[in-house]
Specification:
Blueprint: H1 2-17, H2 24-30, H3 42-53, E1 60-62, E2 67-69, E3 74-75, H4 105-117, H5 124-129
Antiparallel strand pairs: 1-2, 2-3
Protein name: Alpha-lactalbumin
InterPro entries: Glyco_hydro_22 (IPR001916), Glyco_hydro_22_CS (IPR019799), Lactalbumin (IPR000545), Lysozyme-like_dom_sf (IPR023346)
Family: Belongs to the glycosyl hydrolase 22 family.
Length: 142
């Protein structure tokens, strides 16, 4: 009985910490405010977020001296602030953990600042994988 309770508890905890895994169509819908901003189309964003975070709103990638957060993998050295990098430039004036929730409003506001400052090439996947043959990133359900 004890092992069943332990297993049930672990299963409950695992479910509570699962990330929000969006679909291609959900990403297209959620990112409509980015359409054309900085000259970047929605299919380019769908492709870029797929190759950056796998459409995972709670993706966290640890690098040597920095961490990237959320759907857009926004870096804590320049764009947001966390405990790991308390001296961040924090250009988006936001706590990095805000990029891990399902509300993409603040993520999109920061993405626009990134686009204004450094452009789409901030996301390395864009140039390599998302600048042509974009039909596959469209969604017929929209």
């Amino acid at each position: 009985m004890m092992s069943f309770v332990s297993l049930l508890l672990v299963g409950t905890l695992f479910h509570a910490t699962q990330a929000e895994q969006l679909t291609k169509c959900e990403v297209l819908r959620e990112l409509k405010d980015l359409k054309g901003y900085g000259g970047v189309s929605l299919p380019e964003w769908v492709c870029t977020t797929f190759h950056t975070s796998g459409y995972d709103t709670q993706a966290i990638v640890q690098n040597n001296d920095s961490t990237e957060y959320g759907l857009f993998q926004i870096n804590n050295k320049i764009w947001c602030k966390d405990d790991q990098n308390p001296h961040s430039s924090n250009i988006c004036n936001i706590s990095c953990d805000k990029f891990l929730d399902d509300d993409l409003t603040d993520d999109i506001m920061c993405v626009k600042k990134i686009l204004d400052k450094v452009g789409i090439n901030y996301w390395l996947a864009h140039k390599a994988l998302c600048s042509e043959k974009l039909d596959q990133w469209l969604c017929e359900k929209l």
